[in-house]
Design a protein that fits this description.
five-stranded antiparallel β-sheet, 8 helices, 262 residues, 45% helix, elongated
């Protein structure tokens, strides 16, 4: 014998609707795993493929067809590519949705201090009954020393310990969102540059290499006062020491040694 379940005519198969389903998916762990996997794959590709190099250097490493694919997919500058930035934005949206979902859940539990029914209390990992006024006073005296009383009424007492732990996930989410915001701002507005500075030279500009090298002012000057290399007995470089001076408005404000391998 078999049975079939029929739906009422006109009944909606999903009461949440498209927006509700989308909201649930955006806050889901599944979406988080998908995004993190894509971000990880993008980061791996950004490690394998040299980033922001000259066209000639790419053509010396890859065929022209392969380079066209790399350039089209933005693999020569993964961390500034539209698809990678879009993944970060989606991850931020996912994290925000998860945080809000968790926040409202925590607030609901925090605001509810009603005494659970006896069946729910008996189902907890540790439960017991206290009989008599003397035992009741003894128990409340013990609980008052190690727990915080959050409810007292005719129906009973509610004590709490470690209440701040429920905010732990929210704090972690907020920290990740702050890191994401800083990283995103750095990717969009940040830049990296280099200076070739020989002994005795002073420069106040650096070369920004972003596919189209250009000079950018430092706002101060750097002077290489000295540069020394020491070697091991077998001839291998042992230590690189540069003495660098920072000059602001013609005045020396800082002088430090920069060592490599030392």
């Amino acid at each position: 014998m078999s049975a079939t379940k029929s739906k009422r005519p006109g009944a909606s198969p999903d009461k949440r609707g498209v927006f509700g389903s989308l909201q649930t998916f955006l806050a889901s762990v599944t979406f988080t795993i998908i995004l993190l996997s894509c971000i990880a794959i993008g980061s791996i590709l950004g490690t394998i493929v040299k980033q922001r190099a000259d066209v000639e250097e790419y053509l010396s490493l890859y065929s022209e067809g392969t380079y066209r694919i790399i350039s089209f997919l933005g693999l020569d500058d993964v961390y500034h590519s539209p698809w990678f930035l879009a993944l970060l934005v989606l991850f931020a949206i996912n994290l925000t949705a998860c945080t809000l979902k968790r926040f409202f859940s925590v607030m609901k539990r925090t605001g509810s201090t009603g005494l659970p029914d006896e069946k729910a209390l008996s189902a907890t990992a540790m439960s017991f009954h206290v009989e008599g006024v003397t035992d009741y006073k003894t128990m409340t005296g013990i609980l008052d020393k190690g727990y915080r009383r959050i409810h007292q009424g005719q129906d009973g007492l509610i004590y709490e310990k470690g209440g701040l732990s429920r905010y732990g996930a929210l704090m972690i989410h907020a920290s990740i969102m702050l890191i994401l915001a800083g990283g995103f701002i750095g990717l969009v507005t940040g830049y990296k540059g280099f200076i070739v500075l020989g002994p005795g030279e002073t420069k106040s500009v650096m070369t920004v290499n972003s596919g189209n090298p250009r000079e950018r002012s430092l706002g101060f000057a750097l002077k290489c006062k000295d540069f020394r290399i020491s070697f091991y007995p077998n001839g291998a470089p042992k230590d690189y020491v540069s003495t660098i001076e920072v000059i602001d408005n013609g005045t020396s404000v800082l002088e430090k040694q920069i060592r490599v391998n030392g």
